[in-house]
Amino acid sequence: MTHTADVLIVGGSVAAVRAAEAITRHAPELSVTLASDDPHLPYERPPLSKIALTDSLDLAELTYPSVAGLREHGVRFELNTRVTNLDVTSRRVGTSGGDIDYGAVVLAIGCEPILPPMFRDLPNVFVLRRFGDAADLRAAVSDRSRSVAVIGAGFIGGEFAATLAKDGRDVTIVDLAERPLGRFGDLVAAEYAALHRDRGVTLELGDGVVGVEDSVDARVLRLASGRTVPADVILVGIGVRPATQWLEPSGLTLGNGILCDATLRAADRVFAAGDVVQWPNGRFDATMRIEHWTNAAEHGRVAGINAANTVSDLPSIECATVPYFWSDQHGVRIQFAGFLTGSEEVVESREDGGSLFVYRKGDTVTGVIAFERRAEFVKLRALLRRPTLWKAVQPMLPAGAVSM
Ligand SMILES: Cc1cc2nc3c(=O)[nH]c(=O)nc-3n(C[C@H](O)[C@H](O)[C@H](O)COP(=O)(O)OP(=O)(O)OC[C@H]3O[C@@H](n4cnc5c(N)ncnc54)[C@H](O)[C@@H]3O)c2cc1C
What we know:
Helices cover 23% and strands 33% of the residues. By secondary structure, it is of the alpha/beta class. The chain has three domains: 3-112 and 241-311, FAD/NAD(P)-binding domain; 115-236, FAD/NAD(P)-binding domain (3-Layer(bba) Sandwich); 331-403, Enolase-like, domain 1 (2-Layer Sandwich). The strands form six sheets. Strands 1, 2, 3, 4, 5, 6, 19 and 20 form an eight-stranded mixed sheet that branches. Strands 23, 24, 25, 26, 27, 28 and 29 form a seven-stranded antiparallel sheet that branches. α1 crosses α3 (66-73) and α1 packs parallel to α7 (293-311). The longest helix has 19 residues, at 293-311.
């Protein structure tokens, strides 16, 4: 059966919810449908890798509080509904539950985890993106006799390893890279590795998995170095890719995600938002794709307004943001704001209360990462909303900050 929505939102996570909120506030007269292939109403993903193993995973608590108001407003939630094709000429999508005609569409379809063939179809191997993944993973590790290995030393792997360590469990993180979080430079990589090692997490760095071997009552990962890692349960956290395969015949420009302009417009009456978007970010004069919650939320807001404006023949607004993320590991909050290209000079400041790393390119500050040091981080993040000169930041750093 076909139905019609003034604005159709494809996706059921933060970018989708923020788009629905923006449309209902900005143009309450428009009808809105949200189609998501997840069986659940939109919920927060960041807690899925952080909630202590001793606390329960409560879907109702994770569900976005605004969802109730959106439903009351009349937003139609089509859950368990996979959108399978987009026809930009007839303004229609095909879904597993029938066709939907739209006045404008927001594609907030995010990313899907990468699972190399070596791990597919093996028991007790998990990725961590959705509520169902988290529930299955936690059930698997609840048997304390099972060993756990995490592949990938990024944020999701690091956070989950930290929850295991907090529960007194042995866990090994394996990563091909010698330096975890290497894109932030050697100093941050060393700080991050020390954070994990000091809390009892075993790190196998600069080593790749070449096989998964079973014996009678245990399973191990075989590494390229010949070493083995106990791995009855395996979390693969090696990254994600934009969930755009179904859009290939649509005529949208796809590359590293959906290519959009500065207003997040991908084609006539088609906008995109969140992790899936590659767009020119005017704040840094650079084209980027960002995989963080705050960016997805801001994209959702802008794409929602622009989709509503398009239906009403109003002009679009641009989306310029300062990329930001946080991560909680071993009781330490790690936060980053800015945009790095890899050629920055790093100025470090270490104190008992944590570490701060400021990135500069010539006279300009391009980013900051903090391990704790929350108050200073907040000030530096606020400054970064506008192009920021080093001389404005230098007095804020404690004496003894060292340039590397
Ligand atoms: C475990 C975990 C912890 C995280 N922790 C942090 C953190 O601490 N800090 C931080 O900044 N970021 C964190 N992130 C990242 C953050 O959650 C993402 O940046 C954010 O979820 C991206 O939102 P999104 O709406 O763009 O896409 P996604 O969250 O990927 O959602 C995409 C949605 O689209 C739906 N969908 C996809 N394709 C289709 C289709 N064809 N038809 C219908 N529906 C479809 C999916 O079901 C899903 O609902 C974390 C992510 C995870 C998974």
